[in-house]
């Protein structure tokens, strides 16, 4: 959800710098595995097992053909008596590769949830190593050229921003429809992915799903529960995405408040009061709007302009514990005419180079295309005129200062989408009775998944429970919390739910200043809890770039 059409192809690339997603994924030749109707595991990625599971493209029409899902697991080491079956994991996106993510996070997920589980993930149909793969472009060069034109553009950047964004969405919608030779776009909707999860569960010999989903993974989990309420074993959904940006400005406020509290040593953009920091940021923004700053780093080059500045700020709202301090430093440098720090936060990859031959086969880096295909294909068709979209944007802008990257853009990106399947699931995302309660997680201020959205979902699934993690940012992965992970583990292992009103603190602080309460809690951690904390950090580092990566195309 929530995918501005023209935003940061590259923000996630910058965030990928430290984490591990790309490099530890040693090549595994998926195309050499024969798709099978059973889980025929083979060794892969050294300690994992992989299989390609054949599923019907259309569960109500077997003549529509099949897809082959790339499925991976980190097997449990438990004895048969203690084995608790498969725990399926979806890291979000939509369109993120579950396979790549599990390779970096599998062992850590097993630490958090327990080694009695097989930790399982998969590339959703149409995504990455699952075939057929959704692709709108014929070559890597063509894709790179399109993406170069999709550099972060705030809908508020100029009077042309809205019409240009609208036109690009229409162009992309036509292109996608024309080039969908495999027909996969029709079948990539979330309801079908939920059906695939049921298939996987049954192939494991289990009747009910055990599932952990983050960000878009929440939509997938809730859709499963609505479609198959009697197949819910455990469903943990972490961050309920929505199009209402009601908490976005709260996260911005936490930047101002946190910086003022952290002091000049920890926050480079420090002023004695939050209001003074806000004013300083407004002045800097106005000056950059008037005069953008060109930047050349050793590996890349570009322009820090109004859109760029706003989009880096908005990205930091997802991951404040990681980005507030460097962003503050970048803002201070930018005042002095040096855009390199801010630029490096988001753009670290060299300019695209290629020999301009056709895309290398098998092609699988299609997350940018998958995000559009899934979120638009899931939705009610948008048929707004440009004027209606303008009005929609103007109304939405009343809820948040940063709506330029959210509501408006999300709606824009699907205006012009053409491939809709009749009979797709359009809600309600609810069920009067599920075979086990869901567990929902919300943070205290999430830029794209406010608590009120989670409360709506909670109301739709009577008996379910909600846990609040006391931290700004998107999903529990914004910062590690032993308290949160203990509830997660208990929910899976013995089914217990947090009491109503439970709020968990985190083992981290904004701007890196260890708050006294955090410090004393840290000092009291057991060796086992230290191990969990380390695991949570690995999961966070690996998944955080995926959840901000929605801003592509
Ligand atoms: C089933 O799929 C086939 C192949 O795509 C198609 O020709 C046929 O019309 C479909 N049948 C129904 C009932 O949708
Ligand atoms: C399985 O692995 C975990 C974590 O590595 C370990 O603590 C546990 O003792 C192992 N269990 C068995 C049955 O080998
Ligand atoms: C989240 O909340 C909205 C309500 O704003 C709801 O429509 C949507 O289905 C929910 N999605 C999930 C479970 O992520
Ligand atoms: C690229 O692909 C197109 C269409 O598949 C084909 O006609 C063309 O010969 C290919 N070009 C190169 C350089 O391989
Ligand atoms: C758009 O930018 C102008 C000028 O910087 C600002 O005053 C206004 O609040 C912005 N509007 C939105 C909706 O972001
Ligand atoms: C679940 O496990 C936790 C410890 O892991 C324990 O404190 C709690 O009482 C257990 N609940 C039930 C219902 O067994
Ligand atoms: C944190 O503790 C130190 C001494 O342990 C104290 O000097 C300081 O004032 C405390 N800070 C806060 C914010 O309570």
Give me some keywords for this one:
41% helix, 12 strands, two-stranded antiparallel sheet, AB_hydrolase_fold, 553 residues
Would you mind describing this structure in some detail?
Helix content is 41%, strand content 13%. The protein is an alpha/beta fold and 553 residues long. Strand 11, helix 16 (482-494) and strand 12 form a beta-alpha-beta unit. Helix 4 packs parallel to helix 14, helix 9 (306-318) runs antiparallel to helix 10 (320-335) and helix 13 (386-396) packs antiparallel against helix 14 (407-414). The longest helix has 22 residues, at 527-548. The chain starts with 10 loop residues before the first helix and ends in a 5-residue tail after the last helix. The protein binds 2-acetamido-2-deoxy-beta-D-glucopyranose (7 copies).
